[in-house]
Amino acid sequence: MEGEGGVGSQVFLEGVSKFYGGETALADIHLAFTDLVTTAVVGPSGSGKSTLLQLINGLIRPTRGKVSVFGNPIDYERLPQLRLRIGYAVQGTGLFPHLTVWENITLLARLARWEPERVRARGQDLMRLVDLPLSFERRYPYELSGGQQQRVGLCRAMILNPKIFLLDEPFGALDPMTRNEIHQEFLHLQKLEARTMILVTHDLREAPMALAAVFLLLLWPGRSAPAPQRTIVVGSKHFNEGYILSEILAQLLEDRGFAVDRKFGLGGTLICFDALRNGGIDLYPEYSGTLEQAVLKLPERVSYGELRRRLKSQFGLDLLDSFGFSNTYAIAVSRNLAEKLGLKRISDLSRLPGLRFGFSLEFLNRQDGWPGLARTYGLTVRPSGIEHGLAYQAIRENKLDLTDVYSTDGDIRKFDLILLEDDRHYFPDYLAAPLVRADVEEGAKRILGELAGTITETEMQELNGM
Predict the structure, then answer these.
(1) Smallest Cα–Cα separation from 405: which of 366, 435, 363, 374?
(2) Rounded to two decimals, what is the model's pTM?
(3) CA-to-CA distance for 417 and 336, rounded, in angstroms?
(4) How far is Cα 450 from Cα 80, in angstroms, rounded to an integer?
């Protein structure tokens, strides 16, 4: 490593400290990592190794000091752009279980809006490089071995050819033979495409693969956070956004040393809420409007703070700060129909009683769905019920004129739909946030709280469209 100040280094930390409440994760760190080589950071559990990588990746902010990446202080207002330039691989691979191997590998390239031909060429080159058969493209993570999953994770981390690569104990769950194979893959990759690699590990046997240096983070008394007391069970509803948000929550907790059990796709709102109340799960992503209308069945809208208070007093549940976006209900029509009939607002529908309305069964039966919408806008049409996943195709095939959608649905762009303005402000905000049992460790809640305000509506729509 270079000397203090980062001369000749793309990654350096100056006087960096990170505290969680009264506990110290890192204190007064001065580091500069040598460019285009691999450096291992070795230390026991709790010594701050993962915290170091999270600071470099902008996942957390230092309590004191400055973190510079690519030679400049991190701009926390432009974190998505920074993270697209950094490869990040963790123990357990962090693959999305509902995406195929190919969808996982190419996720970042598609978010970066690469041309399909470029995505195809880069993805296949990487699969060949790490000895993944191209026939695995349509497989799901559960159909792969641990070593194969790790290779998929490496391909995804390298898809944008990042010049900085962060590795947080990515080989810990592998058997010795597979671990050795992956080590060799890394050495091979580094020779082909040299980059700045920072490897975090508690195992000195992995340090020899580091080509530059081994930096020891010593565990001082009182510096480590308390060990997690039990496995945290993360649940999700049975739709795409629920899977994505729950996986983000699960990966963040795992990254900080918590054991996590995933129970995804449980069902609708009431099933997940009952599982949370009864202790079947410890947390899941929920929406403020859903809690207000479908769970608490409030006759009036309340503030986010009041919603928190009622959930705590009635059910002993903690609603954490929002991820940063609202996934409210909306009414969607095809662009062609909107232009043909001059449709811009929901109130325009009252003058067109001949339109074919088709809504999901949940929307038809919720008080914040069709019943209230019809009263607010004076709509007398009798809508038909349709499976949410079939409605878009029905509109495309001219079998249906409009349907209910979630405003962050990734298929809105895919099917070229227009959202009608809610000009009478009927739909409440549906702020997405973790809903957590009160008996979950406070340290875990603080970690989850770091996701507050980090996802925009546009970013969530793009993730849902992957």
Answers:
(1) 363
(2) 0.56
(3) 9
(4) 15
**pLDDT for the residue 92:** 57
With contact defined as beta carbons under 8 Å apart, do 430 and 319 qualify? no
- Whether residue 374 contacts residue 404, with contact meaning beta carbons closer than 8 Å, is answered with no
**Residue 147 pLDDT:** 79
Structure tokens at 240: 């795409």
For tokens 């033979």, the residue is: 177
CB 56 within 8 A of CB 16: no
CB atoms within 10 A of CB 242: 22
β-bridge partners, 260: 232
pLDDT of residue 455 exceeding 50, the answer is yes
Half-sphere exposure in the Cβ direction for 185 (13 Å, CA):
23
| Termini Cα distance of the chain | 39
CA dist., res. 167 & res. 90, Å (int): 6
- Residue 200 phi, psi dihedral angles, 5° rounding: -100, 130
Q: What is the pLDDT of residues 436-445, one digit of tens each?
A: 999 999 989 9
